[in-house]
Amino acid sequence: MNEATLVIIKPDGLKKSLTGNILTRLSETKLKIIGSKIVKVGEELAHKHYHHLKNQAFYPELIKYITGRLHGDNRVMVLVYWGTGAISKVRMIAGATNPEEADPVSIRGAYGRILTTGLYENVVHASSDVEEASREIRLWFEPEEIVYELYPTKEVKAEQKTKRVWE
Ligand code: UDP
Ligand code: MG
Fold first, then answer.
1. Nearest protein CA to atom 14 of ligand 1, as residue
2. Which of 6, 12, 52, 83 has its Cα between 20 and 30 A from that of 137?
3. Is residue 158 part of a domain?
4. Quick one: pLDDT at residue 149?
5. What is the pTM of this model?
6. Which pLDDT band, with edges at 50, 70 and 90, does 87 fall under?
7. Which of 6, 15, 137 is nearest to 68 (CA)?
8. Is 151 inside a domain boundary?
9. Which atom of ligand 1 is found nearest the CA of 119?
10. Which atom of ligand 1 has the smallest separation from the CA of 127?
11. How far apart are CA 48 and CA 7, in angstroms?
């Protein structure tokens, strides 16, 4: 079944210049990239993305990690991959959450590490099921930033809204 999944190359991936390696590994899936961008991750987005983990002991460290405060760089690269079995194909190449337990040929096995704080610095995020993918893709992307119409949309009048444009 065709499905979409969200991939985030976390701040350690960018800091270590692993973007190319990671995209090459993911290209083995033959899935289509249907959205991609570099995002500056603020507190609000970080908390929304990981809200289900807020009671975990590692949560404050995880927020520091995804907002780039551990690496002095708050950029991440986010991508939407689409195709047959996209979620499991990407999770397979990403590897287990704990980099020490991850297959050494997986992305996390090859490039991840466990910090002395215990946090898994594991280079990539990948959605784990269809519901999570839907929630995450709609959190990180606007409809017009994705080339396929994945989810229902609606039109709203946004006259009161201001936006920054090139001067
Ligand atoms: N994490 C961690 N310690 C744990 C579990 C998770 O540091 O015991 C971090 C890790 O960076 C992981 C993220 O929290 O990628 C989200 O956790 P989740 O259980 O959703 O794992 P994932 O879906 O990323 O494999
Ligand atoms: Mg997860």
1. 62
2. 12
3. no
4. 96
5. 0.96
6. very high
7. 15
8. no
9. 7
10. 23
11. 16
Q: Which of 67, 61, 161, 34 has the alpha carbon at shortest distance from 120?
A: 61
Q: What is the pLDDT of residue 81?
A: 99
DSSP state of 90: H
CATH number of the structural domain spanning residue 123? 3.30.70.141
Residue 159, pLDDT above cutoff 90: no
Number of domains making up the chain: 1
CA of 1 to the centre of ligand 1 (A): 26
- Catalytic residue status for 125: yes
Tell me if 152 is assigned to some domain.
Answer: no
Catalytic-role residue among 49, 51, 52, 125: 125
Determine the distance separating the centroid of ligand 2 and the alpha carbon of 19, expressed in angstroms: 20
Q: Is residue 133 domain-resident?
A: yes
The Cα–Cα gap between 80 and 62 comes to 22
Range of the domain at 49: 2-145
Ligand 1 is surrounded, with C-beta below 6 A, by 53, 58, 62, 97, 119-120, 122, 125, 128
Give the bridge partners for 80, in sequence order.
6, 35
